Amino acid sequence: MDQALKYVRRPSSHLWEIGLLALALALPYMSFMDRSRTSLAVFAGIYVMLGLSLNVIVGYAGLFQLGHAAFFGLGAYTAAILSIDYGITILATIPIAILVAGGAAVLVTKPILHLRGDYLCIVTIAFGEIFRIAVTNNVFGITGGSNGLFGAGRPEFPLPWLEPVPAIMLAIILALHLLGTRKSGPVLQWGGAAVIATAYYLLPLGLDRKPLFVVSMAMGAVAVIAGAVLRSNRASARVQMIVLVGIVLAFALGTVLGAETITGEIAYSMDEYFNVDDPTTILGVEFTPVAFKRDARPYYYLVLGFIVLTVVGMRRLQNSRLGRAWLYVREDQLAAEAMGIDTTQIKLIAFAIGSAWAGVAGVLYASRFTVVAPESFNFLQSVIMFSIVVLGGSGSIPGVLVGTLGMVVLPELLRDAAPTFMYEGAGPVVILALILGFYLYHAQDRLPAAVLESAAIAAAFFLPPLLLGEPALYVVGILMALVMLIAIARLRRRTARYLPWVAGALAVYTIVLLAAGGSLGPDLSDGVSGFRIMDWRDGLMGVAMVLMMMLRPAGLIPERRRGIAPVTVEQPSEPIPTAARQQTTV
Amino acid sequence: MALLEVHSLSKDFGGLRAIDGLSFSLSPGEILSIIGPNGAGKTTVFNVITGIYPATTGTVVFDGQPLVETHERRSERVLRRLLTSLGGWIPKLPELILARLGMAPILRPHDVVERGIARTFQTIRLFPRLTVLENVMAGEHHRGRAGALGALLRLPSERDEERRIVERAIQRLEFIGLADKLNEIAHNLAYGDQRRLEIARALATDPKLLVLDEPAAGLNEAEGLALMETIRRIRDKGVTILLIEHDMKVVMGISDRIIVLDDGTKIADGTPIEIQQDANVIAAYLGEEEVEV
Ligand SMILES: Nc1ncnc2c1ncn2[C@@H]1O[C@H](COP(=O)(O)OP(=O)(O)O)[C@@H](O)[C@H]1O
Ligand SMILES: [Mg+2]
Q1: Phi and psi at residue A393, in whole multiples of 5°?
Q2: Can you tell me the distance from the alpha carbon of A132 to that of A120, in angstroms, rounded to the nearest whole number?
Q3: Which residue's CA is the nearest one to ligand 1's atom 9?
Q4: What ipTM was estimated for this complex?
Q5: From residue A171, how far is each of A167, A168, A176, A178, A373 by CA, in Å?
Q6: pLDDT, tens digit, for every residue of A125-143?
Q7: How far is CA B259 from CA A507, B2, B50, B266, in A?
Q8: B10, B13, B246: which to mutate for ligand 1, most atoms within 8 A of CB?
Q9: What are φ and ψ of residue B136, in 5° steps?
Q10: I need a surface site. Which of A10, A315, A418, B152 has the fewest CB within 10 A?
């Protein structure tokens, strides 16, 4: 990175991002992902986009917006109308949706931008409601009234299939370059490329090539980990390069050798997920026109692609002149104005960009559900979007991901899992209370961390059996909880103090369960008696949110910026960048 | 020609007349101080000039262009208000129409900065949670051009501009003597450093006129002296300076001219030596504190 720019654009390792992306790519193929959960993931993905778009307005610029669903809806209705009435293929309506939603945001927010805080909040609520009522009343006779619109198209596009593997690899590496990973060293780049290339091959193939998938995934992971290790050992760039080229060559070779079988089976596999047309050749590249079916998996990757695009875009905005202006406006509007920043315009741009992108999410929504109805864009949805941003941490991109997990995924999972999550005693409550109690007792100095950690332990304990619906896995859960606990305790160097408590808690849990019913875990046969999480879902969510905001007012994953505490300030060894200075290392 | 001309400026807050028929002018390269007891209306003068408050009556001309103009008919005021609300939808159009009609433009604080006036605040208004460098970069903002698209595509022009912004901001910090703290959070700086940072941030807008509102407030003797030295250096770079001070002795050394304000009216105007001997001034300051030479 440029000497001067390093002060404002902090180079990040991208390790987390690539790891998360690898996980996300593999998610639909994991054993606990059934049809409905993949659907849920698509739905959640759309909400991640909505959260990220609202984050521009609420997080970056520090404005209130409790009518975001209206712009989401504008995008969805635009797509549906254009697709149904004018036969435009749905993904092609995205630019129009951007214009409609962004343009509407400019028109609507312009007169109210000078309002402060709570007033702005009320007015945005009003706009959200006006939109909902307008579409319910079938304005201009094009919105279909309270039933909404049916039959929006599903995505269709020509899928290129490039025979030579290296070309694809090259393209992907190029793309990664453009995405700005250039500075994070060759290792992560190639590792990431391996992972993405794998996904490219496996996307249309489904489960048939599971072994190859696993191998490639593992290689991607090895590349990433090797890269991280080499980097932390400060291996020279040349050594890094050699190791990586080795890994990648092996990967490429494996893929080339496997390519014959892959291409041989493609038509068969693709039929499962797509309506496939006869391939056409354009400029020597074979394109297969495909259209999505109802199956959620292709949508999952489509939405994932959009999320990646959004995250990259948001990062760049955040780190730009415009992003800084948002920050100045958020921190002190008068001071920003006195520095020559047109705060009205800056806020307007935030609304325009955030709303336009909500419109894109709307197009995806319409293409996924093919039905667009007023109630999907009501006040509650606006509140959920707002909560996603605030719960996760205003201005924080990972915060939006976590916020969506909390606001959208968790409630659905609990609904899903209701039959499995039926207990003969108050087991889960007891263990949660015990863990929490011991933490609170011991960790008054770090209350928020304590709550988070106990939640993590409890999650490790409950999630395996919950997700997999297998009571026997409670053993695994106990093990995982223990591992988690030891890890946390080691991190905090208080092993000796913590362990007995957890052991005690688990023992009490076992005793309570045994005393109450006799079996260790949920009893699937008896649906009448016992504690049903489902009945308590909304109440628990509410309590959890209130607690959360009390303990972590900046959100679960607060925005991490150079300037925003807590930070360790590194003193630059060389405060004055000299443009002429050249790096002399190899 | 005068850089800044203030003519019969008045400002009412409800029934309170905070400035009353104030006139003065400021030549390029001058250091002019406005002094006066608390509540005399000094800050209000600044706020009117920099577009934070509209004036009640009077005119302000800066660099040959009208900044503030109040003697207008009712119909003109209505038209102006209408155009203001239009402003955000069709940028530049209101300005064009007003210029055609020969009326003063609608200036908001950021427009005033664009014209070449930068200011600091009496109570420090840094961006406390941002770094020193980011604070100064705020001042560079209005000369940048990169927008959302440039940022999203990370165009070469955008990168160049960003680099220039950072480099220039660092130069300002070197000038003011804070370059070694550029990565620190503004809030954590010592009080004196925060004052200086605010000046560096204002300088980053590249002003013709720098307006400082009690920059020495809260500083100790040595820091105060160092600050005056800095102000002189800024003037030597060709920036005209309008300085508010509550404390007379601070400004005696560096001012070319001093205006004394009491209860919104000018009671004296002259060189430091003239002011020290002015009977009105001594009277105004009597209840407040001793005038020391
Ligand atoms: N926004 C305002 N609303 C009402 N009165 C104000 C406002 N700003 C300043 N004043 C009043 O105007 C007078 C002059 O204030 P100010 O310009 O801050 O004085 P100085 O800076 O000389 O101490 C004071 O009486 C003050 O109370
Ligand atoms: Mg004052």
Answers
A1: 125, 110
A2: 19
A3: B44
A4: 0.90
A5: 6, 5, 9, 10, 40
A6: 899 999 999 999 888 888 8
A7: 82, 16, 19, 7
A8: B13
A9: -70, -35
A10: A10
Chain Cα centroid distance, residue A184: 22
The two tokens of residue A483 are 């591992």
Closest listed residue to residue B216, CA positions, set B272, B255, B175, B261 = B255
| DSSP H/E element including A232 | helix A210-232
Structure tokens at A528: 């009448």
In chain A, residues 294-313 whose CB comes closer than 8 Å to chain B: 313
Cα–Cα distance, B288 to B37 (Å, whole number): 7
Residue contacts between A and B (CB atoms, under 8 Å): 164
- Which residues make Cβ contacts (< 8 Å) with residue B275, sequence separation at least 6? B248, B258, B260, B268, B281
pTM to 2 decimal places: 0.75
- Our separate counts of H helices and E strands in chain A read 21, 8
CATH class of the region B122-206: alpha beta
DSSP state of A145: G
Asked if residue A374 lies in contact with residue A137, where contact means CB atoms within 8 angstroms, the answer is no
Residue B138: predicted pLDDT: 94
Please name the residue of chain B whose CA is at the shortest distance from the CA of residue A311: B152
Nearest CA to ligand 1 atom 16: B41
- Atom number in ligand 1 closest to CA B40: 22
Please report the beta strands in chain B, taking only residues with DSSP state E, as ranges in sequence order: 4-13, 16-26, 31-35, 57-62, 65-69, 117-119, 209-213, 240-245, 257-262, 265-270
Which pLDDT value is given to residue A84?
A: 92
